[in-house]
Amino acid sequence: MGPHPRTLRQIVWELHTLLGKAGIRPVYVFVGHSYGGILARLYALTYPSEVGGMVLVDSGAEKGVAVFKNGQMVRLVETATGRPIPPIKTSNPLRESDLPENIRIQIETAAQQMAPHATESPYNKLPADAQRMRRWSFSQVKHWATNDNPFEGEELAALAAELRKPYPLGNLPLVVISRGLDADEEHNRNQSALVGLSRHGRQVIAKHSVHEIMITEPDVVVQAIREVLSDTRK
Questions:
Q1: How many domains does the chain have?
Q2: Low-confidence ranges of the chain (pLDDT < 70)
Q3: Which of 23, 59, 146, 196 makes the best surface tag, with the fewest CB within 10 Å?
C-alpha cells in the first residue's frame, strides 16, 4: 500500500502510542490470542519495562505463519531475504481515500464476501453488541487494507531469532493456554516452546476447545489472567 506498509513494528508502536494518549499507564498484562500473541511478544521485546506479565491464548508461532503464494502454502519466515524493514511512520497515516480505485474495489469485494461469516460459530456465542461490532468491522475496507505487510517474513524471522535466545522474556509471569482439540504435532511443539520464553512460564491445556478458547472456555482464560496479575503485583 505504498512506501509505509503497516508492519508489525508499526502496529506495536501504534498500540504503545494509543495507550499513552489514553492515559493508560504501564505496567501492562498482555493477553494475546492467535496472531495477537506474536504482537504481544514483540511489544514485550520492544518495551520490556512496560510489560509485567503475559497470557498467550492459543498463540500463533512465528515459524507457523503461512500464506498461499504461487499455488502453494509458503511459510513467511522462509520468504525473508534480509531486506531492511521500513522505519515506523509517526504521521500521515494511510487513508481509505488514498487507495487506488482498483485496489479499493478488490478490497471492497473481499469485505462483502467476508462480512456474512463474521459471526459464524463460535463467534455466535459472543454478546449481541460484540457480534454487531464484529460484523461492522469485517465490512470495512479499512479493516482489510491494514493487513498489507510485504515485510512480514523479515519481521517474523527477526522475531523468531530473538526468541531463540534463552528466556528472552526473562522472569516475566507467563501462562500459555493451548487448545486441547484439533491440534497437530507441530502446533503442540510450538505451544510447548512458548513456555520457555520465560523462567516463570507454564502451560494450561483447554481440554474442550479448539482455537477460540476465550469463547468456549472463558473461565480458563480468566483464571490465567488473575494468576498473572497476582504474580505481577508481588
A1: 2
A2: 1-4
A3: 23
